[in-house]
Design brief:
The protein has eight helices and 15 strands. It is α/β, with parallel strands linked by helices and 352 residues long. It folds into three domains: 104 residues, no CATH class; 81 residues, no CATH class; 149 residues, Rossmann fold, CATH 3.40.50.720. The protein has a six-stranded parallel β-sheet, sandwiched between helices. A five-stranded antiparallel β-sheet has the order 3-2-1-5-4. It has a four-stranded antiparallel β-sheet with strand order 7-6-9-8. α5 links the parallel β10 and β11. The radius of gyration is 23 Å and the shape is elongated.
């Protein structure tokens, strides 16, 4: 999830200065991966680069930069942190941290924001030099193979980053490297049917993950007006028709106020077939009733219907407890079907 992009744009529109803190490189053990980000303003922070002394020191540095630097200064600073010696953290590795202020007219961010808002993939390429200039640009995937624009090693590493969704630091020389950060769609699409207490708790939990959520209900005035950036609410008299709008390999959670509506949605998802997960809230007795009727109606993929939902071993019935169990189960299934790989079929994945 790239919530820092929307947040940074809101800060710019409000005239509020902010520093983006990025893990630019990692050697050895570290609390976060390359590309992890935190936004620091004069009043708060968003995101995390791992917590502890590293995050505390970086927050202090960012606040100092905002306080002391000229408002017209283009802040870009690369600092190295030995986690054991400098931060007292047991990880013991070494991380390079990039501090950058996104000022008005930062072309790389304007290009990134345009691609992000249009749902297009993009790459942030940041050339890092020890003690030298730091240059950040945003490029489209089709620009990578433009003759003479990038070194071959950069093009190859950038295309790999687009494929696997992971940032990396490419060493060009002993003193020069390129931080390559892909900005792609989450690839983790979830439809939640039902805005009751459990549905609301589940959406709140899932919205903190790198996913896109369509939250659907047939009732009026039950879906909240204010939602996280990765949640789209849909009020419709025919929720089951929204299944056609979902991409292949999507995750479906069915928990409406109506058993007949639950059945209609379950049946439609199972008939479609190209889903990663189809979960129905309810007891084993509800699962047996639904299974019997689905067999009578000759619906395919009945064995792939998950009911009850949630990882085993959590017996709590409070909405937040159910939300945690369900989010854990979806993450397990996502890992099992390998959504970042070429094949995403969950046909052979059993209930974890």
């Amino acid at each position: 999830m790239h919530e820092w992009i929307d947040d940074l744009q809101r800060s710019r529109e409000a005239g509020e200065r902010a520093i983006i803190v990025t893990v630019a490189d990692v050697r050895g053990s570290a609390p976060r991966e390359i590309g992890a980000k935190m936004r620091v303003s004069s009043r708060d922070t968003l995101g995390t680069i791992g917590g502890g002394q590293l995050e505390y020191q970086c927050t202090q540095i960012a606040c100092g930069l905002l306080r002391d630097a000229d408002t017209d200064t283009d802040i870009r600073l690369l600092r190295r942190f030995p986690l054991g010696a400098n931060c007292g953290q047991c990880c013991g590795g070494v991380v390079d941290i990039l501090f950058e202020e996104c000022v008005a007219g930062s072309g790389w961010f304007d290009d990134l924001l345009h691609a992000y808002r249009c749902g297009q993939a993009a790459l942030m390429l940041t050339r890092l030099a020890n003690g030298g200039d730091i240059v950040r640009t945003t490029v489209r995937p089709d620009e990578l193979r433009v003759a003479g624009k990038f070194e071959g090693a950069i093009t190859d590493a950038a295309e790999q980053a687009l494929n696997d969704g992971h940032a990396r630091n490419l060493k060009l020389t002993a003193k020069h490297s390129v931080l390559i950060e892909p900005i792609t769609a989450a690839g983790f699409d979830i439809a939640v049917f039902g805005a009751g207490h459990v549905g609301t708790a589940i959406v709140a939990m899932l919205a903190t993950l790198d996913c896109d959520i369509r939250w659907i209900d047939s009732r009026r005035k039950v879906l909240p007006a204010s939602l996280p950036a990765n949640v789209q609410s849909i009020r419709t008299d025919t929720p089951e028709r929204e299944i056609a709008a979902m991409p292949a390999n999507a995750f479906y959670l069915i928990m409406t106020h109506s058993h007949p509506l639950d059945y209609a949605i379950c049946s439609a998802v199972l008939k479609r077939g190209d889903f990663a997960y189809c979960g129905l809230i309810g007891s084993l007795s509800k699962q047996r009733r639904f299974t019997k009727r689905l067999r009578q109606d000759e619906v395919a993929n009945i064995e792939r219907l998950i009911c009850p939902i949630g990882v085993a071993g959590i017996s709590g019935k409070k909405p937040p407890e159910i939300a945690i169990a369900v989010a854990a189960e979806l993450l397990q299934v996502r890992e099992a079907v390998g959504l970042n790989e070429t094949s995403c079929s969950a046909a052979n994945v059993s209930h974890l």
